[in-house]
Specification:
Low-confidence stretches: none
Strand content: 15-25%
Number of strands: 8
CATH class: Alpha Beta
Largest sheet: 8 strands, parallel
Radius of gyration: 16 Å
Order of helices and strands: EEHEHEHEHEHEEHH
CATH superfamily: Aldolase class I
Number of domains: 1
Shape: globular
Number of helices: 7
Length: about 190
């Protein structure tokens, strides 16, 4: 079964995590480059950015405004631990700000930071932290009614992808499953 949403956020930690040739639909995909360890070479990132532009894929850099500006990315992604309000200055130069949150309080902070879209985590159980609290579909839907720009993130796998049709909202975000089986996930989105 296919998942029909308007926005697919793919969070990658390396530009080799995804093959852009698999993406055939335009203006629905958003790639968030979130590499906290070793940043890819600038020339490789520039080439990747150009390919994203050619395929009408929006490209965001996580927590690094200087890199985002130098790559002429579509915006910046602020992780939930990023609490600084200085990013509001970049909202004025047509630079989109996306953020992530885990609670209603963090959603309020992300709105103050100027985030136009907020990735709310954790929708389902995640492999790396079995004891972490999860929202589930009902609780997430309640959050999304309070704020229309909320997108689910966390625990989204190939086997629970169909449940996303019950989630209120125009998209969803994937991180770990994209690393494991990128072609399987992308093929299910059409």
């Amino acid at each position: 079964m296919f998942i029909k949403k308007n926005k697919y956020f793919l969070i990658i930690e390396n530009i080799k995590d995804i093959d852009l040739k698999n993406i055939k639909i335009r203006n629905k995909f958003f790639i968030i480059y979130r590499n906290m360890k070793k940043i890819d070479k600038i020339n490789d990132l520039l080439q990747f950015r150009q390919k994203c532009k050619q395929k009408a894929i929006k490209f965001y850099i996580a927590n690094n405004i200087k890199l985002a500006i130098s790559l002429q990315s579509d915006g910046v992604y602020l992780s939930s631990y990023e609490k600084d309000l200085r990013f509001l200055n970049f909202k004025k130069i047509n630079f989109e700000i996306i953020g992530s949150a885990h609670s209603f309080r963090e959603i309020s902070l992300k709105k103050k930071q100027g985030c136009s879209i907020i990735l709310l985590s954790k929708l389902f159980l995640v492999d790396y932290d079995k004891k972490a609290p999860i929202l589930g579909i009902l609780k997430f839907n309640n959050f999304s009614r309070m704020s229309k720009q909320v997108i689910p993130l966390g625990g989204i796998k190939n086997q629970n992808l169909n449940k996303l049709n019950n989630v209120v909202g125009e998209g969803f975000a994937i991180l770990s499953e994209l690393k494991k089986k990128p072609a399987n996930i992308i093929n299910r989105l059409f």
